[in-house]
Q: What sequence folds into this?
């Protein structure tokens, strides 16, 4: 019935050890990603997924506070919610297509395992963002340019995403996917969705009179970036009275 | 074709997506109500979700209409062309019965619908991010771009489903040339019938300035390919 053999456990015994606690999960995703892949296929995979989502949300909220320090005020709670919410929304939007691409590539992973890999990717991304947070905070405190801060956060997000996608790619290969082409297409879709969400949920770094002006004025993210660079996005910038801007 | 019954039960959509020939053979081997119901449900849910995503740009009511019409097109195409496709197969060198040809096409449509369903959150997000469809607004290029994007998604789903269908036909025929001939014949007949059906049952996205309705009063005017061509011309001008 099955053309492919069942998934084999990792050869290294240390990669087969269960993940006990958040500390072990953090250690594993940084040093032994195969251990996380293996844990996701085991009976307690749901708990691992839940723990990774929880930590990812907490880390995203913390990084969001750092993002919010640029404008302070209400952005200290708006930015964390938008960043954590945006990452979750992007994941929900892209999970079904990830599963389809995985199956088309010959992967034997179930939907729950693909969801786990995606959560692992978010987990790793947000951990890396926490690692980059002190640098981001320093620039937030010392820089007045909204565009510069936007570019910096984008750069940090790209670095985190590259490592996250590398984790996902390794999980993809471990699930006996015959090709990575589908994953590459999906990675582009995920990146585009995330970038569009930064515009849809704007402002994240700057301020505006309303929380979600993006819901009223729909824009493509490149158009929004050009508007910001040309100074047409000034309504989203911090008011001069708030921080001598 | 002797396929054990337990294997039939374990046959899953994931196996079909992976292109496991044994699963494809099982899926289309026998006329079982549960199999046909599953295929139809996949079409109704998957294509329905994608249809709703298309329609929500214009109006929530349009989303409901499109969610009904898109699965209807797929099911009507499968049934409307069933006789022709069953006749074409033996004529082009593939000795299969009416039942098998119908189930094979229905399975490929179910696969395409599953892929469309998986892309429906993405389509809904793209449409949500686009400017609203308002009469007099200068967003015809956005409208055209989204239409083309949706056509790309539908084409991807269709091509993928047909690649899997080809693998099934190849294993049934035992020869590649017969499988290629039958696949192309089925593709042409289904595309020809399905695209015009989609034109007759328009709108799916809807146009600014035109009312939200289940069917246009001039439903039988023009054709699908003409509309796609005009969208492409509008985008690149």
A:
């Amino acid at each position: 019935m099955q053309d492919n053999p069942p998934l084999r456990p990792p050869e290294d015994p240390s990669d087969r050890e269960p993940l006990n606690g958040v500390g072990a999960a953090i250690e594993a995703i940084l040093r032994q990603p195969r251990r996380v892949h293996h844990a996701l296929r085991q009976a307690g995979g749901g708990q691992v997924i839940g723990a990774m989502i929880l930590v990812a949300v907490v880390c995203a909220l913390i990084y969001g506070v750092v993002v919010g320090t640029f404008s302070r005020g209400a952005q200290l709670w708006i930015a964390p919610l938008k960043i954590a919410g945006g990452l979750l929304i992007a994941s929900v939007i892209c999970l079904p297509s990830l599963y389809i691409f995985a199956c088309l590539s010959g992967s034997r992973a179930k939907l729950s395992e693909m969801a786990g890999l995606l959560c692992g990717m978010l987990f790793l991304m947000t951990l890396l963002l926490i690692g980059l947070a002190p640098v981001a905070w320093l620039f937030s405190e010392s820089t007045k340019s909204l565009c510069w801060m936007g570019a910096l956060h984008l750069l940090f997000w790209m670095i985190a995403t590259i490592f996250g996608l590398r984790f996902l790619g390794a999980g993809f290969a471990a699930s006996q996917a015959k090709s990575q082409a589908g994953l590459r297409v999906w990675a582009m879709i995920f990146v585009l969705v995330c970038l569009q969400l930064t515009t849809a949920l704007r402002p994240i770094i700057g301020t505006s009179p309303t929380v979600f002006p993006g819901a009223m004025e729909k824009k493509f993210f490149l158009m929004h970036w050009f508007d910001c660079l040309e100074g047409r996005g000034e309504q989203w910038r911090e008011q001069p009275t708030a921080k001598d801007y | 074709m002797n396929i054990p019954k337990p294997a039939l039960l374990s046959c899953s959509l994931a196996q079909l997506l992976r292109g496991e020939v044994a699963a494809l053979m099982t899926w289309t081997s026998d006329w079982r109500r549960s199999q046909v119901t599953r295929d139809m449900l996949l079409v109704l849910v998957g294509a329905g979700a994608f249809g709703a995503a298309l329609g929500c740009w214009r109006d929530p009511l349009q989303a409901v209409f499109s969610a009904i019409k898109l699965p209807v097109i797929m099911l009507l195409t499968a049934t409307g062309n069933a006789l022709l496709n069953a006749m074409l197969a033996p004529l082009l060198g593939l000795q299969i019965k009416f039942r098998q040809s119908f189930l094979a096409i229905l399975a490929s449509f179910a696969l395409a619908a599953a892929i469309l369903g998986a892309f429906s959150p993405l389509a809904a997000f793209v449409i949500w991010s686009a400017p609203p469809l308002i009469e007099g607004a200068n967003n015809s290029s956005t409208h055209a771009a989204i239409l083309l994007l949706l056509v790309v998604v539908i084409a991807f789903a269709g091509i993928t489903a047909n690649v899997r269908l080809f693998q099934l036909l190849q294993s049934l025929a035992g020869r590649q040339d017969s499988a290629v001939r039958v696949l192309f014949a089925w593709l042409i007949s289904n595309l020809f019938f399905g695209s015009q059906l989609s034109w007759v049952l328009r709108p799916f996205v809807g146009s600014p300035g035109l009312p939200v309705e289940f069917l246009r009063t001039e439903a039988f005017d023009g054709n699908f390919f003409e509309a796609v061509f005009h969208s492409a011309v509008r985008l690149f001008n």
Q: What stands out?
A: Chain A has one domain: 13-243. DSSP finds nine helices and no strands in chain A. Confidence is low (pLDDT under 50) at residues 234-245 of chain A.
